[in-house]
Amino acid sequence: MTDATKTLCPYCGVGCGLEVSPPAQPGKATNRDSKGTPIWKVQGDRTHPSSQGMVCVKGATIAESLNKDRLHYPMMRDSLDQPFQRVSWEEALDRIVQRFKTVLATQGSDGVCMYGSGQFQTQDYYIAQKLLKGCLGTNNFDANSRLCMSSAVAGYIQSFGSDGPPCCYDDLELTDCAFLIGTNTAECHPIVFNRLRKYHKKNQHVKMIVVDPRRTPTAEAADLHLAIKPGTDIDLLNGIAHLLMRWGYIDSEFIEECTNNFPAFAEVISHYPPEVVAKICGIEEREIEIAAQYWAESKRVLSLWSMGVNQSSEGTAKVRNIINLHLMTGQIGKPGAGPFSLTGQPNAMGGREAGGLSHILPGYRLVKNPQHRAEVEQAWGLTPGAISPNPGRTAWDMITGLETGDVGLLWIAATNPAVSMPDLVRTKAALMRSPFTIYQDAYYPTETAAFAHVLLPAAQWGEKTGVMTNSERVITLCPAFKPPVGDGRPDWEIFAEVGRRLGFADKFAFKNSAEVYAEFVELTRDRPCDQTGISHERLHQEGPIQWPCADSSINNIDRHNSRPKVLDRTPKRMYTDFRFNTPDGRARFGAYHSRGLAEPADPNYPFVLTTGRLYGHWHTLTRTGRIDKIKQMHPNPFIEIHPRDAVGLGITDGELLEVRSRRGRGRFPALITKAIAPGTVFVPMHWGSLWADQAEANALTHPEACPDSLQPELKACAVQLLPVRNHIETPQALLESPKSSILSAAPSA
Ligand SMILES: Nc1nc2c(c(=O)[nH]1)N[C@H]1C(S)=C(S)[C@@H](COP(=O)(O)OP(=O)(O)OC[C@H]3O[C@@H](n4cnc5c(=O)[nH]c(N)nc54)[C@H](O)[C@@H]3O)O[C@H]1N2
Ligand SMILES: Nc1nc2c(c(=O)[nH]1)N[C@H]1C(S)=C(S)[C@@H](COP(=O)(O)OP(=O)(O)OC[C@H]3O[C@@H](n4cnc5c(=O)[nH]c(N)nc54)[C@H](O)[C@@H]3O)O[C@H]1N2
Ligand code: SF4
Ligand SMILES: [Mo]
């Protein structure tokens, strides 16, 4: 392709390379959508090391949504009951700056909050941190990664001393056993799954274990599917560890030389013989034994996980328990082995590097660490003490801050919380009370726009230049290849402009995003995520580069042959020397008994609802809801329910079920399937109020979170199910009373 731009897919954290070329190529018919809009042509980039030319349906169709239903210009209104008025950027920025000044003067800097996104480019993240945490002195920046990866971040930090997935995708094709837990990789990380699946099919000895309460397409491909009850992962993992210990399949030398706290862990797992674990998890003893046997017999074990682990009120403990298995067997720091979190969003990794959560700072630093704060203050030319020592508000704390009136200004960008936050009834009520909400998005309308005072049009992927990091730490340059729609501007430029107008002109004097990145990489120097050897120029010339990549490793003259060192292109792993980022260099075992679900099923709410994703759709549908092919694949929301439970409720396939939790309700057609365990039901997260009537998964979920990662348990809440046909409107009082159990059938045991 001649005019093709090499870039990265803006959907999932697999991070596939794409080549995008303009619609009207010389000599070829112009590609157009049903409205006659030209469509850019997209294909996989064969030279991208992570994806090797492969793409899934989302990446392949991305161009079809780029020009549809975009937010074209800034809009404003004084109160939420008024219609929006189109305004100029000047007017919008004036209003924003004025409001900032008022809130800073009356409530202090902690009255200001920003809620960002793993769909930011690293530049967007970095400038937002500099503005909020640096110039304004509040750590009230959090991202939707709080709902996504924060348990993995906390688990890595506690076990290894720092964040950072230690593995690389080549490990998918080097392992003897892939242990997939709480991940529907086939639908959510399809190209990772393709690589693994091909290798698994070709190599008889390679085992694949999937741990998921649902029989997903991922589970279909496994040698062993452990359909555990939701929330029993810790018991299962302790059970596998128990057998490995009993059988003597542990790496005593590694434990002795490279770890701490093994005795506490050994004590805990002694309580988890298979007969106990099988009962708790709702599986057979034999299944646990097979899983442990696969671990024991495999030279190299690779664990993959995502939201079934992270989105839990004990998410950090689950992550650490996965890591425990790797530590006790020495399965880390070598090809084909290690604990590997699959990142959800395209640049949640870059967000972590740039300090994009309320408790972290750029360069894998922590807000609570005085030395880390001092290093960042110095880099930013701030007075000592300018950065607050207190972690800021998490995503959910922003909602409660609106409830209490402590949040005076909320700036939301590149996320759609009126669909994706837990407990939507409460979330929306809090957003309604917000004194001033700025919402910066690429599309219009979205559900969150209804709660904004100011709407700012963002230039999206393809309209701005920046970098993103995928799950295996590979950084790809994403150049602009088309002009922004309407008056759209890159997120980081909007943040920088507000920073300048608030009096920090010298801190935001960047001419372009390459300069922003160059400043950021200095903050990674000598840190685990060192990328000082990477620049826009280098990415443009040499293609995607994996970190760590220190400038000392490439820019220096090689003393032996006095030639400049060239970039080492072999995929890297972390911890190959078995030294970890803890003060004593040892990894730490965590010792955990399970506390179970935050809201277990009970006689009033007898089913456990779990939520998640479908192959074709992306989150809140702002893009994929506008793509015909994908709409045909997944036209409607639904609720998966086991045939036995359907019989208990007397319902047939397709019949409408009303689902109620303690917080809200929704209506979904039943999809009767043995793929889900009795007692558990599943609803996709994708459909918000603009896309379907009363089919919001998060009307039902709760915000109870892991005490370490503060990540909410979006994967489980207790619900009642009522067939709509014989459903009489129930007064709220009756719904709350214990008698309400008579209204809802119990799951078949
Ligand atoms: N098609 C598609 N792909 C995506 C996305 C998308 O919107 N659409 N989003 C991206 C993002 S941001 C993310 S975070 C990832 C998410 O990727 P995944 O985590 O793979 O996706 P989910 O469907 O949220 O949840 C995964 C599985 O967790 C299981 N689960 C539920 N409860 C438990 C439990 O207690 N224990 C265990 N072991 N499993 C449980 C569910 O049954 C589900 O199959 O996907 C990314 N990729
Ligand atoms: N029940 C339940 N809830 C969940 C989950 C679940 O599994 N179950 N998963 C959680 C997880 S893991 C995640 S990651 C979240 C995702 O939830 P959200 O972040 O709310 O979902 P998106 O639809 O991806 O929202 C991204 C928004 O950014 C806009 N956008 C796209 N590009 C740009 C850009 O360049 N700039 C700006 N400013 N805007 C842009 C899009 O139009 C869209 O409105 O949902 C969470 N909520
Ligand atoms: S697997 Fe993920 S990154 Fe790759 S094309 Fe699909 S959505 Fe894009
Ligand atoms: Mo996510």
From TrEMBL:
SUPFAM superfamilies: ADC-like (SSF50692), Formate dehydrogenase/DMSO reductase, domains 1-3 (SSF53706). One of its GO terms (cellular component) is membrane. It is an enzyme of class 1 (oxidoreductase). Its cofactor is Mo-bis(molybdopterin guanine dinucleotide); [4Fe-4S] cluster. It comes from the Bacteria. Its EC number is 1.7.7.2. Keywords: 4Fe-4S, Iron, Iron-sulfur, Metal-binding, Molybdenum, Nitrate assimilation, Oxidoreductase. Signal peptide: none annotated. One of its GO terms (molecular function) is metal ion binding. Residues 22-51 are annotated as: Disordered. One of its GO terms (biological process) is nitrate assimilation. Residues 2-70 form the 4Fe-4S Mo/W bis-MGD-type domain. Pfam families: Molybdop_Fe4S4, Molybdopterin, Molydop_binding. PANTHER family: NADPH-FE(3+) OXIDOREDUCTASE SUBUNIT ALPHA (PTHR43105:SF9), RESPIRATORY NITRATE REDUCTASE (PTHR43105). Belongs to the prokaryotic molybdopterin-containing oxidoreductase family. NasA/NapA/NarB subfamily. This is Assimilatory nitrate reductase (Ferredoxin). It comes from Crinalium epipsammum PCC 9333.
